[in-house]
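Supplementary Methods, section 5.1.

A reviewer requested that the exact input to the structure prediction be made available. We therefore reproduce it here, unchanged from the version used in the analyses.
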Amino acid sequence: MKDLIISLLVLLILASCKESEIIDIDRIGQNEPYVFEYGNFPSPDIHEDNKLSVQGVKLGRMLFYEKMLSRDNSISCGSCHQQEHAFSDVNRFSLGVDGLPGGRQAMAIFNMAWNTNHYFWDGRADLLRHQSLMPIQDALEMDETLPNVISKLNNSSIYPEQFERAFGTKEISSERISLAMEQFMNSIISKNSKYDKYLAGNASFTEQEERGRFLFFQEFNPSFPDQSGADCQHCHGGANFENDRYMNNGLDTDAEMTDIGRQAVTGIAADKGKFKVTSLRNIALSPPYMHDGRFSTLEEVIDHYDLVKQSSTLDGSFQQQLPYNGLILSNDDKAALVAFLKTLTDHELINNPNYSDPF
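The structure derived from this sequence is encoded token-by-token as follows.
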């Protein structure tokens, strides 16, 4: 009987140690680096003052889907940046807490770790952490104050402890909220499309997809129509299919232009009508298109680029097509481009449980 009691005591001590060990490991999560897997992408340049940690990313994910960040606790960041749509919104303009539409189409959120030229369509946020707080305070979006958000999180049963795990203190601040959200958004990576598998030799293209790939990467050459392409790669090149620039892509003439884009931020006349060049990855998942969501389909987008509109700040890369009445694309060419763009869809991104709503 004595031996049995001793054995039970030993088991209880071991169980207690194991539980304590788990808690201790969880509490030092801020020192446990979050492991990036980024395929063929270059190594991401994460800011030294906010390296990703397991607990920081976890907290950021919780905050991303937390409805307490809105005035009436009805919407979260994830309401307008939905995983199934590559963290974008299929509504032309997202609806805020009062059902009012925003002024521009919600941008997709993935591969932010490789973004080097500010945030939003007009680049008004220097860092992702700054961007994360702006929709909270926007009257057309979440319409809440940061002091109220902090108060609500402090009064919750879970967040003080989660902030301690991520930052070593239960003190909740707007800065720590923004750093955690930056960590989570930087962790969202898209790298496993059919195109990526094609590059790795693990997938093959149909004849139509291959024609679209040729047109996408081939330069426009009106002197040799059979060898001429759509010249898409100048703006949508590199591993992430973008060029870290703000450009006027010929949506409007000067007279038609109602949104001056980047000019509103810089005050520079030459920036009128320029908007951030976005990634084409997962483009088939994230209609509608352009800063104002004016195009509902990829076919409409291709038609636009086949013949853009002239304006005073139209980018020079589009000027060359104007004398030839467009890119000289046939209907089959346009269909091939759409087929290629669909190979950029990453189904693993939209089904990854690490990015889903944790509540």
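Residues 4-29 have pLDDT under 50 and may be disordered. These observations are discussed further in the main text.
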